[in-house]
Amino acid sequence: MNFQQLRSVRETVRCGFNLTEVAGALHTSQPGISRQIRELEDELGLQIFVRAGKRLTGLTPPGEAVLPIVERLLLDAENLRRAGAEFSAQTSGPLAIAATHSQARYALPAAVRDFRQLYPQVTLNLHQGSPKQVAEMLLSGEADIGVATEALAHYEQLVALPCYRWTHSVVVPPDHDLLRQDGPLTLHKLARFPIITYDEGYTGRRHIDEAFARVGLRPSVVLTAMDADVIKTYVELGMGVGIVASIAFDAERDRTLRALDAGALFEVNLTRLAIRRGTWLRGYVFAFIEAFAPTLTRAAVERALQGDVADA
User: Fold this and answer.
1) What is the DSSP letter of 1?
2) Could you tell me the pTM of the whole model?
3) Residue 8 CB: number of other CB atoms within 10 A?
């Protein structure tokens, strides 16, 4: 048994049993992949994959049982490599962070700046995507840390730690009717105007939809986007009223817009930082986590990784 055999099995599942894609991912030949799989099956005395002729079409029941062990062995091998690197280069190396557009644009910059001052030799790689893509990058090992508001707590393979709570704001042009109305902002007042907000599954969109549904309203959502800068651009064009994360509005920067606090209208949102369960983290990774969320000290993160702290 060797790691190349284990990688062949893992990548075959990840690539949807397409051996051509597996060969490309592992930089080898398709016959080589087939041989590695067959040799491992022979050594284990069981068939891992279902076959239709020469094609692999799925996992057998024994294969379903073996796959988590394969994943764990490969993760432990990666952890061993990282542990060695931890002691040979404690202040330098790569750090990959996956985050949604809003987190990357508004929440992470201060932490990145502070971290760079402490660890100038660490190479930071920032990947942006949907909450689901952030989770997938963590699971595949492409990212060390993931930051998002949605989805991360739904994966058993991830340890999702609460970072901070935030609310939404309504953004409008300076002469908008909502700024001239008496009394507090309400969902009924808001629903009279076209709405521009986040795509489904992004930045608290679920809480926005649920709030309107609870009072029997179906607002006219005329445009959706992944990040607040796009939303604000179309609000400036007069296409509608924007609903964005409060951290995405800055009065000095967004001089052509005005913000109304919507904290009382929509449920408070919780941004989480996630790590793949069982992953070895270098010392500077703990330092970045604490720079982003000061309550997440190394001791707190290690307790969570050991399962001693329940996810909030």
Assistant:
1) -
2) 0.69
3) 26
